[in-house]
Amino acid sequence: MKTIIAAYSGVLRGTGANFLSAIQDLPSVPWPSKSKVEKQLQVISVMQWVLSFLVMGAVCTVGLLYLFFTDCWLIAALYIAWLVFDWNTPRQGGRRSSWVRNWTVWKYFRDYFPIRLIKTHNLLPSRNYIFGYHPHGIFCFGAFCNFGTEATGFSKKFPGICPHLATLAGNFRLPLLRDYLMSGGICPVNRNSMDYLLSHNGTGNAVVIVVGGAAESLECIPGKHSVTLKNRKGFVKLALQQGADLVPVYSFGENEVYKQIIFEESSWGRYLQRKFQKLMGFAPCFFHGCGIFSTNSWGMVPYSKDINTVVGEPITVPKIESPSQDEVDLYHDMYVQSLLKLFDRYKVKFGLLETDTLALH
């Protein structure tokens, strides 16, 4: 027995030596570097938001209808009952979640571009505010990251101020997407929602409105600096009626992350875009970014360009329940001049030329 064990041990020792020798002769496996892993996580975090915005509502709606024809129909029925019960919540301050706003995924989202929030003045928690965000871009990446999450530290930079990013009311009619948006403090951009946040929710609220809307998204071109603002005065009238201070916000680089196909004004393509915008509230844009695996190919991944969001100086607005058109025009002019001043002050710092100007439409 001892002889057999000794012989077997010798075989094992020989096999082990041969195995180690074979391992050493194998070519080394190239493991991805830490920077590459982080870059892929950043791409995943951005695409998660893009796909959520584009298809989450439709997919969840179809999925909910499908459940009614399966053994899980009770789950769908319970959710529909909850949806009916909870229907007015988005218009009554929503249901924000600090946990969701502080998800690690948003930090990867921020670092992909990267996105930065620049504070220029203090904001008093004893006041309410309306932020006018410019430009719209394709997906408002800067607006979402800065005001729909805590990735850039909004609460630390503006203590006592609670941001509410306003978006299309139609998004809050879609199952699950509505809850996802509300968790970030996002609300419908309609009069009922705005009035509630500025008059029934105390002070220290900042409603963020992308003033240019769908019309401005059609002018989103890299290197172009223009905003749709001349005839957009409803947010100024709302500020006067609620006594909320106006704050201009400009995101340098928002237009750079996608390339858009622009149709001639007299073309059928532009005509259909305008019609769709009037019917649905948003305009279909034909755009492209880069591919997931190659920046030289076309795809849905946005280009990695710096987005610097500058929050300007607040304009003190008195409360006037029934402002005249002259009063609305006066504060609208003050807002426009403040926005132009903000653009001119920071344009060179963020890579623009001294001769670049902000066009108003």
UniProtKB/TrEMBL annotation:
Membrane topology label: Multi-pass membrane protein
UniProt-listed PANTHER family: DIACYLGLYCEROL O-ACYLTRANSFERASE (PTHR12317), DIACYLGLYCEROL O-ACYLTRANSFERASE 2 (PTHR12317:SF14)
EC id: 2.3.1.-
One Gene Ontology cellular component: endoplasmic reticulum membrane
GO molecular function, a single term: retinol O-fatty-acyltransferase activity
Subcellular location: Cytoplasm, Perinuclear region; Endoplasmic reticulum membrane; Lipid droplet
Source species: Acipenser oxyrinchus oxyrinchus
Assigned keywords, A-Z: Acyltransferase, Cytoplasm, Endoplasmic reticulum, Glycerol metabolism, Lipid biosynthesis, Lipid droplet, Lipid metabolism, Membrane, Transferase, Transmembrane, Transmembrane helix
Family to which the UniProt record says this protein belongs: Belongs to the diacylglycerol acyltransferase family.
Highest taxon of the lineage: Eukaryota
Pathway as given in its UniProt record: Lipid metabolism; Glycerolipid metabolism; triacylglycerol biosynthesis
One Pfam family recorded for the sequence: DAGAT
Gene Ontology process terms (BP): glycerol metabolic process; triglyceride biosynthetic process
Protein name: Acyltransferase
Main location: cytoplasm
Annotated InterPro entries: DAGAT
Reactions that this protein is recorded to catalyse: 1-O-(9Z-octadecenyl)-glycerol + (9Z)-octadecenoyl-CoA = 1-O-(9Z-octadecyl)-3-(9Z-octadecenoyl)-glycerol + CoA; 1,2-di-(9Z-octadecenoyl)-sn-glycerol + hexadecanoyl-CoA = 1,2-di-(9Z)-octadecenoyl-3-hexadecanoyl-sn-glycerol + CoA; 1,2-di-(9Z-octadecenoyl)-sn-glycerol + (9Z)-octadecenoyl-CoA = 1,2,3-tri-(9Z-octadecenoyl)-glycerol + CoA; 2,3-di-(9Z)-octadecenoyl-sn-glycerol + (9Z)-octadecenoyl-CoA = 1,2,3-tri-(9Z-octadecenoyl)-glycerol + CoA
Presence of the UniProt keyword Transferase in the record: yes
